[in-house]
Amino acid sequence: MLLLSELDNHQHLLFDDKIQVDQLIKDIIRHEQFAADEKSLIILADLESIDFLGNQRLLHQALSNLLINAIKYTDVGGAIDIALQHSHNNIIFTISNDGSPISPQAEARLFERFYKVSKHDNSNGLGLAITKSIIELHHGTIQFTQSNAYVTTFTITLPNHSH
Q1: Long-range CB pairs of 71-75, under 8 A, 24+ apart, other chains included
Q2: Domain Histidine kinase spans what residues (predicted)?
Q3: What pTM was estimated for this model as a whole?
Q4: Which residues contact 102 (CB under 8 A, 6 or more apart)?
Q5: Which domains does the chain have, with CATH numbers?
Q6: Largest alpha-carbon pair distance within the chain?
C-alpha cells in the first residue's frame, strides 16, 4: 500500500538512474530461479544489451511482478519466455508463459487495483496495477495478449532516448 501511495504522489520520485535493463532482468531471473525450479519451469531469456534512464527500484519492482506472476500461473514443467529488444526509439520487453486461460471478463480487469483472477488467489490483487503505474510513470505502455494455445504475453514498451 505504501508503494501505491508513493506512485500516486510521485513528486519526489527520480527517474535518472542509468539502468542496464538486460542485467536487471538477469538479476530478477536469478532471484526467482528457485521458485521456477520448484515447478520444473524453464526460463528462456533473449536479451539485447540496453541502457535506459529511469527509476531502477521501480522498474525492478514492475519486471519482478511480471516474472513472479508468470511463475505462479505457468503449469508445472512449462516454459517462460522473456525477450528484450530495441525497436526504433523504444525498448520492448515481453514475457510469455503457458498456463490456464484467462477469461475475457478477467482480461478486461487485469490492471485494476485489488482485482484477482481467482478468489482462491492468495495475492492482494495489486501486482499488475502497480506494474502498470510504474510503466506509465516511465511514459510507457503495458499490454496483455493471449493466444488460442493458452500462451499469455505481457508486452511493455518504453521510450528510450538514452542509446
Answers
A1: 71/32, 71/35, 71/36, 71/39, 71/41, 73/97, 73/99, 73/100, 73/152, 74/39, 74/41, 74/98, 74/99, 75/99, 75/100
A2: 1-162
A3: 0.88
A4: 110, 117, 144, 146, 152
A5: 2-7+16-159 (3.30.565.10)
A6: 44
Q: Where are the beta strands (DSSP E) in the chain?
A: 17-20, 42-47, 51-54, 79-87, 90-98, 141-146, 151-159
Grid cell at residue 136 = 506509465
Residue pLDDT, tens place only, 24-74: 999 999 999 999 999 999 999 999 999 999 999 999 999 999 999 999 989
C-alpha cell at 86: 530495441
β-pair type (79-87, 42-47):
parallel
Cell representation of residue 39: 515447478
